[in-house]
Every structure is written in structure tokens, then in C-alpha cells.
Amino acid sequence: MNFTDSHCHLDFSNFDNERDKLLELCSLANINKMIIPAVSPKNWQLLLKLVEKNKTNCQLFSCLGIHPWYLNGLDNTHLELLDQTIAPQQNKLIAIGETGLDGVIAKEQNNLSKQQSFFEFHIHMANKYALPLIIHHRRTHPEILQQLKMTPVKKFGVIHAFSGSYQQGKAYIDLGYKLGIGGTITYPRAEKTIKAVKRFPIEALMLETDAPSMPLFGMQGESNSPLRLLNIFDKLAELRSEPKELLSEAIEKNVEELFGIT
Ligand SMILES: [Zn+2]
Fold this sequence. Notes:
Blueprint: E1 3-5, H1 19-28, E2 31-37, H2 41-53, E3 59-64, H3 76-86, E4 95-102, H4 103-109, H5 112-128, E5 133-138, H6 141-150, E6 157-159, H7 166-175, E7 178-181, H8 191-199, E8 205-207, H9 229-239, H10 244-259
Parallel strand pairs: 1-2, 2-3, 3-4, 4-5, 5-6, 6-7, 7-8
The protein binds zinc ion.
């Protein structure tokens, strides 16, 4: 079986001392591909360099964008810069993101409309460069769905670290989106998400760790690792009716289809 961590922040300094070693361990564990979404203009060059220089057996893929947690101090000039940074890299990038809407931050910082205008710009970039979108959500399913219906992304994308009900997930799937399944399903209290993940069509599922964020159940307080992808897969296999081999194959096919990587 082969695996792709479809969402991992490997560029974060948490991994500075062990990055190559970790990637070799990933490849030994058959985690052969990793998709790294950017979070802030500060990380863009670092991320591009990291992916370009990678000589390990784990293939890395980059995406450029601005995460809704990192909007402070940014304005439209950074959106222009995003466009200018994507342009010469467009053949190397496999998606635009991370972008999206975070309801908790919107409340704390009273910045929902700024988040929305940044999100809309990312959709515009995805369409301009014909790339899929990597979307962050937190208490914002209605707002995100509304935006995606209003300004459709031609190449679709993934709702990363999906949590929510079957109906909420299905609404994205019906629009053509995939759902990133992460550590949430390892938490017994995430009943609604667990129930939903059992029922989603297999064609809609991808696996991700979001490392170093989102530690799995029982590992709270620790920093997360892409190696935990296999624990998430095991949990997913437990919830699903398909045999493991079939499940992993279908998920890899979904990754290939959405991001155009083999
Ligand atoms: Zn993320």
C-alpha cells in the first residue's frame, strides 16, 4: 500500500532538526508523497526551496497561499505578491492554498470580511492558474459553501481536516470537492464526523495529518508527525467496509486525480 499525506506543514521550524530523517522514515512507511500548503508570504520562498532541494525518497509538492490565521498586517499588496509568486512557479505548484474561513478567528479579530476577500482572491488564483484549492474551515461550512457556489473553482479542491455532519460533507462532495480525513476521526467525541466518514463515497476521501498541528487522540500536547498518517488510515479502515488495500488504492487515485500527481 502507498500513502500520501495530502496536508502537512513540513516547512514549519518544528521539523528543522529532523526533516530529512523524518522524510526517509515516511518513505520506509510507504508514505511516498506529501503535499505542503503554505500559510504565509513569509514561508513561500522557504517552502519552494525546500521542495526543490528535496533528495529523499518521499516526493514533496508545494502549494502557495495565505492561511486565514495569518492575515494580520497583510493587505492587497500581499495578494498581488501571491499572484507574482505563483506565476513563475505555476508548473511546479499543484494547488492554491491554504486558504479558507475560520469562524473562531473571525470572532476574535472581527475580520470575517477580510478573510472572505482573501478567500475570494485565492479562488480567483485557482481559476487563473487552473489549479485546485486547499480549504481550511472552522465553524464556517455555510459561508464556505455559499462562496464556492457563488464563485466556483473550475478544478475544485479539498476541504482540509473535514469535520462536520454527513449533510455538510455531502454538500461539498455534490459540488465536486474532496474531503481531507485527519486526526479528528481518532477522537471518540467526534461522533458526528465519525458517523459521516463511514458513509461518504470512497471517491471523495483523502488522508492527511496537518502536522505539526492536530495531534491524534491520546497524543494531545505533543506535536503531530506525518508518520501518524498510518494511524489515521487504520482508524479510517476500521470505520469503512472496504478492505485496506482497496481503500488505500482508491485514496491514492483520488489524490492523483485532484492534484494531477503520480
Ligand atoms: Zn493546515
